[in-house]
């Protein structure tokens, strides 16, 4: 399958066979870095080797050219502020090129969109991300917990960390239910309880503890209910 072979070549070329020193040199010298062209050549050669078909030489060439264009754009416009965004955009564009080639050879179709079961799972998974987070936020809006402190020092937390933790836990709980592994749900509850116990015990704030507990139960409850409905 062309898609799998090209993805394998991409992973090897972009991560395994690209030292950090090459990345640093490219970011410093940009298009003047010799490692950029070596990197592109490695991708081209790997693609040709994994495809191993002279009739598909143009695919390897297309991978090399597109990789150079995408990487050149990334190096030209990337800054320290948007470096993370450019990394994901870069990877997404590479995968889109590979997917486009695979689609050209009829390896993919959109027939799965006609499968009601798959559509229901996709809708449920999408609901458990931002929509569910917004619902929980609205339900908890009546209570404003005191700032999380340890002693007299207010602790700091990562920006939007709670939101993403909630999304990940709901998706994992939903997955466990869909594949009929309810014991995984118990593992998730226990794991989160262990991680939050020390923080809440040190904070010694009943309101904060209750706030976190309600939020956690709402998050798990929505995920469990959604999984049951889909099943």
TrEMBL record:
Pfam families: DUF3307 (PF11750). Keywords: Membrane, Transmembrane, Transmembrane helix. InterPro entries: Phage_phiKZ_Orf197. The chain crosses the membrane at residues 34-51, 57-75, 87-105, 117-140, 211-230. This is DUF3307 domain-containing protein. It comes from Chryseobacterium profundimaris.
């Amino acid at each position: 399958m062309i898609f799998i072979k090209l993805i394998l070549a991409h992973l090897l070329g972009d991560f395994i066979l690209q030292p950090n020193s090459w990345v640093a040199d490219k970011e410093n010298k940009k298009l003047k870095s010799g490692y950029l062209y070596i990197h592109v050549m490695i991708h081209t050669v790997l693609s040709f080797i994994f495809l191993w078909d002279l009739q598909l030489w143009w695919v390897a060439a297309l991978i090399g050219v597109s990789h150079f264009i995408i990487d050149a754009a990334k190096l030209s416009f990337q800054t320290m502020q948007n470096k993370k965004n450019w990394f994901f955009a870069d990877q997404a564009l590479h995968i889109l090129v590979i997917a486009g080639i695979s689609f050209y050879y009829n390896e993919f179709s959109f027939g799965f969109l006609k499968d009601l079961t798959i559509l229901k799972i996709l809708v449920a998974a999408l609901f458990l991300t931002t929509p569910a987070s917004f619902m929980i936020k609205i339900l908890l809006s009546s209570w404003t917990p005191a700032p999380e402190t340890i002693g007299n020092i207010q602790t700091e937390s990562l920006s939007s960390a709670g939101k993403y933790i909630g999304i990940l836990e709901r998706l994992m709980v939903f997955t466990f239910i869909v594949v009929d592994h309810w014991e995984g749900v118990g593992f998730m509850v226990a794991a989160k309880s262990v991680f939050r116990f020390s923080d809440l015990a040190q904070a010694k704030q009943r309101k904060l503890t209750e706030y976190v507990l309600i939020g956690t139960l709402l998050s798990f409850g929505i995920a469990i209910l959604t999984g049951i409905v889909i099943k």
